[in-house]
Write a structure and sequence with these properties.
This protein is mainly alpha-helical. It is built from four helices and no strands. Helix 1 runs antiparallel to helix 2, helix 1 runs antiparallel to helix 4 and helix 2 packs antiparallel against helix 3.
Length: 107
Amino acid sequence: MELTVSIYRLTQSFPREEAFGLIAQLRRSAVSVPSNIAEGHGRMSPREFRHFLLIARGSNCELQTQLELGSLLGFGDAQLHQATLDLSREIENMLCSLLSNLKARAG
């Protein structure tokens, strides 16, 4: 959730012409990460939870690419860009650890 809030704050300062471009893509990807984690957990099936965690991981990777693009284009605050990218990488590590843990439990 913190990552999503950070993305919304970052994109507030992006150019208006990006409202239906990079801003929309970043926000969609950011919302997708916690949404898929929650949906997978709500399914109450380890197999389905793993599936939705993989989707969340993919959305997070997509988000990182979009953040890099926004940074290269000079959109938004550079410090907030870096802090958001760092948070995304931290979430990536957590998702990978969780996926490994679920795999180990499955045997």
